[in-house]
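Notebook entry, structure prediction.
Reason for the run: the old model in the group folder had no record of what sequence produced it. Starting over properly, with the input documented here first.
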Amino acid sequence: MLVKATYPQKPGDKARLISGIEPGDQGRCLEFWYHQYGSDIDKLNVYIDTNTIGNGSYTLLWSRGANIGNIWRKAHIATEYTTPFRIIFEGIIGNGIKGDIAIDDIRRLPQSCKESNNCDFEDDTFCGWENVRKTDDFDWQLTRGPSSAELVTG
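New structure, fully documented this time:
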């Protein structure tokens, strides 16, 4: 699924993708891949609606804003609810025509999600952490193998 920041969309326009009613007793983790590239995107939000009548009372579960580079990243969101619910993906256009937001491979997994603050970086992602690229001097890099760092004692 793709949202492009091009005409006829205007700044602040929203595109929503809403799931069917999900049973509360199946699937404890929402997994999907996302891509946010371009200077004029705003953000990707994921909401949950536990009032399946569709009256618009959503709870924000997850949000990522701004350009994250021309790469796909995997996200995991806990969906451990006991009552039926709907999942809502929302892409918001920024202040111009450069950029897109995409999502793919949406799955509900039976196990709990990895805790977002515990990351071993083994799956080639930043586990939801963002590598700041515009306001710092250099970047973290994902690598394989032993570290070249030396422990200095004294």
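Summary: Residues 2-109 form a domain with the Jelly Rolls fold (CATH 2.60.120.200).
The old model has been moved to the deprecated folder.
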